[in-house]
Amino acid sequence: AAALAGAAWRSGAAAASAGAARWSFRHASWQQKDEEPTWVQGAKFDSQAPEMDVDVEYHYEGWGTNYDHIPDPEFCAAMCQGVAKCEAYTWVKNAGLDGCPSQCWLKGGVGKKVPKKGLVSGVPPPRKTMPLPVKAGSTKGASLYCFSLMVPGGYEEGLLKWQHDHKAGIFGCDGAGVYSNKPVHVAEGVVASVVNSTLKCGYGGDSQSALNSWIFIAVWHEVIAVGDYKKHDWVAKVDPDAVFFPERLRALVAPHAGKGGYLNNCKY
Fold it and tell me: Could you give the CA distance from residue 146 to residue 127 in angstroms, rounded to a whole number?
């Protein structure tokens, strides 16, 4: 299906190129004045990818897949980095899609390099290896206090009880706490600390996400008031339904021991 889709796209691109040629013949001066480069690596932000081939397509016969609405080649390179068998990629600036018109093709190899306007190709950044897991108490400067905010009466109560019973999630940390707007008995020896909030909020913004900043400000006030975090090196806020491996987080924070700081795992 990917091969057929690629053939269909290439045919469409050829037709589009022919149309562009006729248009440039009639309006050559206009097109030359307003034509922009397909991509300038590092112009908008620091590039994380090896040097890209701009206006080049990698023709490769073998494994491949594609994704629509990928805004730039950096994103495409990162997607390739995340797929073990992806050894190269080609980003199409305008694939004729509604909305964001760009497309990303992941490929199993570079193949033949063919000049083609409007495409950017390259190889992924080096893949990073995950540090070995670190057990509780085995590494100086990596003690974790982990907490979750729980909405009472819902599925989160059951998730947190399961985590407690299996010493998983936040209960695999060196210290753990549960916070809610009621003193809910979560598990043996675990009662939620009460937050001064209804835990209710509206939705808005361009993504219609929860407008819950004030809820979590109240939560952090209670975390500070309880004070258990002071016994540990790091504090981790974890959603009750997050798949969380504290032994892996310890390995990542250990190199930062004693430096202080805030680590955010989400760019946006």
Answer: 29
Taking only the tens place, the pLDDT of each residue in 76-100 is 999 999 999 999 999 999 999 999 9
Instruction: Compute φ and ψ for 192, nearest 5 degrees.
Output: -65, 135
Residue for token digits 């190889």?
Answer: 123
Distance in angstroms (rounded) separating the CA atoms of residues 196 and 262: 25
192-239: pLDDT as tens digits: 999 999 999 999 887 788 899 999 999 999 999 999 999 999 999 999
Radius of gyration over every alpha carbon of the chain, rounded to an integer in angstroms:
25
Q: Where are the beta strands (DSSP E) in the chain?
A: 53-59, 64-68, 88-92, 103-107, 112-122, 144-149, 175-180, 185-187, 190-191, 193-194, 203-204, 209-210, 234-237
Asked if residues 149 and 196 have their Cβ atoms less than 8 Å apart, the reply is: no
| Distance of alpha carbon 141 from alpha carbon 256, whole angstroms | 8
